[in-house]
């Protein structure tokens, strides 16, 4: 790896583009090896994430935000175009709108992959725009793999190095840069074109974290889809020869100076050397449970504690000792009263670790729909228990959260349960069971099982088999074979659901 030191420069410096972060990101992406030269483990993990994305996309087809995005996309038919999850076979829309619809479907349940470091990310959000452009431009499965691995490499590098959250900037600013780089690798663009696309994408997708604060709305699902759509449009403009705000990161009125640490901002971004294997995707991990990633270990911990705590009405209080990020983002440290509101939206509840711990402790299971149902959230006993759960930041858990060694990094916490009779029960869990360092790390059979579980009743068994065969053979798929990455569903049922929604402009 090469450490690149990035700081703010006044305009008078005329910082050469080859010394700018956007150029260095683009150079890594455009230097990504062809699929035959990809690291085999990285390529296999990219296949896993294609399966993972399809799993959560088909499970969300009849959810309102997904239907709204799909309806908007279907109003933008195009040839050759790209496919949309839930649309009739043969229907094609403009690639940026396919990315919008499919990205929303993938993100809606908060149930796909994650990478946590200096900032947060869901690197799987790169896949819908890459797949859409691959279909539209007639690329092969091998070229798609190349783009996915490149996008993950850039996304992970930015998330490791540059914290957006502390400045209340939404994490999709890193996503859009990664997607633009992935598209550069997919399409075989030169570094100069990709560089301009990265800058346009970052400039147009910098937004505040209010989308994940207070009463969280459906925009949480739309935000990464918007970033993917914007990245496609940025690449299109760059390919047509258009330039960008430059240097977008280092400029005196640029991203670092005005959005992050100010004129004295300085960061170190580690990127692979030329010819070095792109393996960053292997540092990312998926979810076994449909909830914010910092809640994954908490759900497993709550299930483990059930037998020791006994009836929940005998619990006086539960305090979760955890990291700064968990406490501030999904815990009581956020200061959001909505995190204790039984009538809160699903999007808010999946970012409330007190709620999640209460339901997991009571039920011993976690379900992507039933655990969030209004009748479940408003159950009187649950509400009473929920109000007795709080979080505190523990410096040791914060340190472990940021440990540079992936083998020691921890995203869980310690639960201190105090019963009415004064008995104190404690337990802790560093990482979720499905984490690579957990009790049951997800492997290919785990991804397949997740797909079959979420596709049950939506995708027929034979169509499940056909999808899995196509995904597992991604490196050998011809351009027309990418259609098989969209599992067949009951499109009439989907259309009937869509017909019940209000119409917009398109």
Automatic annotation (TrEMBL):
<feature type="region of interest" description="Disordered">
    <location>
        <begin position="325"/>
        <end position="345"/>
    </location>
</feature>
<dbReference type="InterPro" id="IPR036148">
    <property type="entry name" value="MmgE/PrpD_sf"/>
</dbReference>
<dbReference type="Pfam" id="PF03972">
    <property type="entry name" value="MmgE_PrpD_N"/>
</dbReference>
<dbReference type="InterPro" id="IPR042188">
    <property type="entry name" value="MmgE/PrpD_sf_2"/>
</dbReference>
<dbReference type="InterPro" id="IPR045336">
    <property type="entry name" value="MmgE_PrpD_N"/>
</dbReference>
<dbReference type="InterPro" id="IPR005656">
    <property type="entry name" value="MmgE_PrpD"/>
</dbReference>
<protein>
    <submittedName>
        <fullName>2-methylcitrate dehydratase</fullName>
    </submittedName>
</protein>
<comment type="similarity">
    <text>Belongs to the PrpD family.</text>
</comment>
<dbReference type="InterPro" id="IPR042183">
    <property type="entry name" value="MmgE/PrpD_sf_1"/>
</dbReference>
<feature type="domain" description="MmgE/PrpD N-terminal">
    <location>
        <begin position="35"/>
        <end position="266"/>
    </location>
</feature>
<feature type="domain" description="MmgE/PrpD C-terminal">
    <location>
        <begin position="289"/>
        <end position="473"/>
    </location>
</feature>
<dbReference type="InterPro" id="IPR045337">
    <property type="entry name" value="MmgE_PrpD_C"/>
</dbReference>
<dbReference type="Pfam" id="PF19305">
    <property type="entry name" value="MmgE_PrpD_C"/>
</dbReference>
């Amino acid at each position: 790896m090469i450490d690149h030191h990035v700081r703010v420069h006044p305009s008078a410096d005329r910082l050469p583009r080859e010394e700018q972060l956007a150029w260095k990101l683009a150079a890594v992406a455009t230097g990504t090896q062809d699929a035959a030269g990809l690291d085999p483990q990285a390529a296999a993990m990219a296949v896993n994430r294609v399966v993972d994305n399809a799993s959560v996309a088909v499970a969300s087809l009849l959810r309102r935000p997904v239907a709204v995005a799909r309806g908007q996309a279907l109003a933008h038919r195009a040839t050759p175009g790209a496919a949309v999850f839930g649309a009739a076979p043969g229907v094609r829309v403009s690639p940026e709108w396919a990315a919008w619809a499919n990205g929303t479907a993938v993100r809606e349940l908060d149930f796909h992959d994650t990478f946590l470091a200096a900032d947060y990310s869901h690197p799987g959000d790169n896949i819908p725009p890459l797949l859409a452009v691959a279909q539209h431009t007639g690329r092969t499965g091998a070229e798609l793999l190349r783009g996915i691995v490149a996008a993950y490499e850039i996304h992970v590098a930015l998330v490791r190095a540059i914290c957006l959250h502390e400045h209340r900037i939404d994490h999709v600013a890193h996503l859009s840069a990664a997607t633009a780089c992935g598209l550069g690798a997919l399409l075989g663009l030169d570094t100069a074109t990709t560089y301009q696309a990265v800058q346009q994408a970052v400039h147009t997708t910098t937004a505040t974290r209010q989308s994940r604060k207070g009463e969280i709305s459906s925009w949480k699902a739309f935000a990464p889809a918007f970033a993917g759509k914007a990245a496609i449009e940025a690449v299109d403009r760059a390919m047509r020869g258009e330039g960008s705000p430059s240097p977008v990161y280092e400029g005196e009125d640029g991203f670092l100076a005005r959005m992050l640490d100010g004129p004295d901002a300085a960061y170190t971004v580690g990127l692979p050397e030329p010819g070095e294997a792109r393996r960053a995707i292997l540092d990312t991990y998926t979810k076994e449970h449909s909830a914010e990633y910092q809640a994954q270990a908490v759900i497993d911990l709550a299930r483990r504690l059930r037998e020791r705590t006994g009836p929940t009405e005998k619990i006086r209080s539960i305090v979760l000792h955890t990291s700064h990020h968990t406490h501030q983002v999904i815990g009581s440290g956020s200061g959001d009263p909505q995190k204790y509101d039984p009538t809160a939206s699903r999007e808010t509840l999946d970012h409330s670790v007190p709620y999640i711990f209460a339901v997991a402790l009571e039920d011993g299971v976690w379900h992507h729909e039933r655990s969030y149902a209004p009748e479940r959230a408003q159950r009187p006993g649950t509400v009473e228990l929920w109000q007795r759960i709080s979080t505190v930041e523990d410096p040791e858990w914060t340190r472990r959260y940021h440990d540079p060694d992936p083998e020691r990094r921890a995203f869980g916490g310690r639960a201190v349960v105090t019963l009415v009779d004064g008995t104190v029960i404690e337990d802790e869990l560093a990482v979720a069971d499905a984490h690579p360092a957990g009790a049951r790390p997800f492997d290919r059979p785990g991804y397949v099982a997740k797909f079959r579980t979420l596709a049950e009743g939506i995708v027929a068994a034979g169509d499940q088999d056909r999808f899995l065969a196509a995904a597992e053979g991604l490196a050998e798929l011809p351009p027309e074979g990418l259609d098989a990455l969209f599992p067949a569903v009951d499109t009439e049922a989907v259309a009937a659901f869509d017909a019940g929604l209000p119409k917009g402009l398109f």
